[in-house]
Amino acid sequence: VVSTSVFARAITGKRDEDFLAERATVLKKAVRMWADVCVAVGPLCEPGALVARDDPSAKEVEQCVTDCIGVRSPFTVRKRAYAMAAFKRWVELAEDFNADSFAVATVIGYVNFLKASKASGYTASSFMSALRFARHVLGFQVDQLLTSRRLAGISEQMLADKDVYNPPPPLSVEQVLRLHDLLRSSELHPYDRASVARILVALYGRCRHSDLQFIKRIEVDCADTTGFVTIWTGHHKVGKAAKQKSLLLPILVPAESVDGQPWLLSALKAIEAAGMNLSGDMDGPLLKAAASSTSAALRSRGVTSAELSTMLRAFLGLPAKCEG
């Protein structure tokens, strides 16, 4: 019954955009945030120099920022933009934000403010990363900030004072065997079985969640417990350079399992039974999100890492949120 299925409690109302559309939305917002900063600082950066020289439209400034960004991840661009925007808001509490805001004394005052206000240990480090991004991507003339030992030292002190990272433990063999039992179960809702299959594929393929969010194609070369499946993914963190971005990354998923039983073909069939088409050029996720908590129809977007984590904890009988 759908209403009592695990996925019904895990799938959220996140905006339904496919992988490429979401990246475009994130990039557009991040570019606008960086464009605002560039316009404010003027000749201090390359896009700002364009403003001072040619008085371009907002769209032209954003295009200049986009050109400078190149092939960098939209999510990285957004992360750096958020850190810079926080600095901009702090400056604007006392004065206008402009090129003078990047004076060493002002920036040191900001990171000291972060330290005194007990901000997260990563806040100053994130801001320093934003400064490096601004320098090397957008041409900000802030070398004096990147070479400041005071700024680096305060950032290091805040990182050292943060809470100890206590991640959840890795899955045990017993827990993996439990997932295999669930994959073989006929009592599970088809979408729950597909979710278990998605988790196992990521586990045996030793890949990131994002590696399975935009798959080009799947090649099957296995029988029972021998052979493997090759998943060709087009968006991966290995590809940072422009040349690497154009290469597909092969993810090999072995048919051999920890319990010695056939599983891989069953996993693929479970995903297909949930409504996914795994043949031909997929250009999409291994598993799309269910349409709602009361429907197993599929959305355009892929199931998120947080949603799969919620389902994994439910499948294994773990607390809703692990300590750490």
Would you kindly provide a written description of the structure presented here, covering whatever features stand out?
The protein has 324 residues and is mostly helical. The chain is built from 14 helices and five strands. The protein has helices spanning 7-10, 19-41, 46-54, 58-69, 74-92, 104-116, 123-138, 143-146, 149-161, 173-184, 190-205, 242-245, 264-273, 305-316; strands at 215-223, 226-233, 249-254, 288-292, 295-302. The strands form two sheets. The protein has a three-stranded antiparallel beta sheet with strand order 1-2-3. The chain has a two-stranded antiparallel ribbon with strand order 4-5. The longest helix has 23 residues, at 19-41. It is elongated, with a radius of gyration of 24 Å. The model has no long low-confidence stretch (mean pLDDT 90).
User: Rg to the nearest angstrom?
Assistant: 24 Å
Cα shape? elongated
Number of strands: 5
- Structural class comes to mainly alpha
Could you give the order of strands across the largest sheet? 1-2-3
User: What do the pLDDT scores average to?
Assistant: 90
Helix content: 40-55%
Following the backbone from N to C, one meets helices and strands in this order, namely HHHHHHHHHHHEEHEHEEH
* Uncertain runs: none
Beta-strand residue percentage: 5-15%
Q: How many strands, which pairing sense, and closed or not: the largest β-sheet? A: 3 strands, antiparallel
N- and C-termini, Cα separation: 33 Å
Number of helices: 14
